[in-house]
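Archive entry. Fields below.
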Amino acid sequence: MKKILIVDDEEKIREVIREYAEFSGYAAEEAADGMSAIGMVKLNDYDLIIMDIMMPKLDGFSAVKEIQKIKNIPVIMLSARGEEYDKLFGFELGIDDYVVKPFSPKELMARVNAVLNRRDASERNVSNIQKFEGLEINIAARTISVDGKRVELTPKEYDLLFYMIQHKNIALSREKLLEDIWGYDFFGDDRTIDTHVKNLRNCLGPYRKFIVTLRGVGYKFEYEE
Amino acid sequence: MKKILIVDDEEKIREVIREYAEFSGYAAEEAADGMSAIGMVKLNDYDLIIMDIMMPKLDGFSAVKEIQKIKNIPVIMLSARGEEYDKLFGFELGIDDYVVKPFSPKELMARVNAVLNRRDASERNVSNIQKFEGLEINIAARTISVDGKRVELTPKEYDLLFYMIQHKNIALSREKLLEDIWGYDFFGDDRTIDTHVKNLRNCLGPYRKFIVTLRGVGYKFEYEE
DNA sequence: TTTCCGATGAAGAAGATACTGATTGTAGAT
DNA sequence: ATCTACAATCAGTATCTTCTTCATCGGAAA
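PREDICTED_STRUCTURE:
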């Protein structure tokens, strides 16, 4: 049986959710704030966490941030209607879904089911991370790692790499790169690209090999699976 | 950067999808109903459309039907749980995937990535490779292979081969080759071509036979299917 | 056989890219 | 508003690849 952790400071809400969750065939436990949630995650294994944002002691976002360091558990956030929060911030944390209060427990459970049922499927697709041997690009997080080690890229370097892997195995002229990455209104020097390619290659370590030079043309990200 | 059109009558849903799409490295635009979606498709180029089925003015299926008349764009349909629809009908329209509400934005993006990657892969493999027996030219990648083995060409060699296969079975004088490949402002020696033809032939192995010498004239790429 | 034209190999010239270092531009902190 | 830190750009030089030319060889046409 799947186990859900419900985190909310209002006892009433916790109770409603727990009852409906158990009714839907889940085991459920409760925590009243972010702090105790973290403690419970350390001690138990949960399949999913339903977490309110506004809470005493430790807010939902901070709690999720801590929890994700410990275990990779899907999270559904609860937020009051009109509550100000930064969605992007949430996405970065790998939050799976939002539900706005007031919600119907039916709707909430539908989302719980959706997240849990498809957790496997989306893990299979993992498409937010692209791998090229030891080179991994996490598109959602805008980060890359080389042989498992995180490497920091400047914005342009990342844009360049991202563009190239999206057009892998295609010859890319300098003009096309400038137009698509820098924008049609950039009238700078072609050689600017060379510099960024150089810098990018330095960041990629052994995987610099994927970026091949096409003399008289431009560059290409070459990778055949 | 790939551009996605999000069509749904609920602003909240559009917003969540758009933010996650942008977060995942896509550009995104929104339309509130089928009608305006059609208008936007006419004006812009999208790489993918995420479309709700139930909408005022014009439902998702009808909109897709119209859009497919204009442009061939992959589509992911959104449908409410239990909503009645005929999946086969959808696939006939060329719909690439279904996602049932409520969905997690993470899952939706995984499917978007899957659909786009599929498209890219099939586009790469279909139209961009020309075959002449064991000689294959991949125009997008600017590569050739001989009997399945990759062979590196210098820029001029590639340009020459590319030009010749685009004018196969046509007699090409040295003057014409110089003018079209080197440019009208090249005033070098005719014999330069001979050297490049020689080098190119060496690269082509058994398929050097396709390049025939026309004594007193120039060369010709000879290949009848 | 003679003549002509193309094929070939080698070497210097030309051209393109890689890289260094300096300058300019920009966002965030104080 | 100013400062600071870092990124983006550009100019100049070094380095490497490719192109072109030339001299010679070989083979087909007359």
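CURATOR_NOTE: The first strand of chain A starts at residue 3 and ends at 7.
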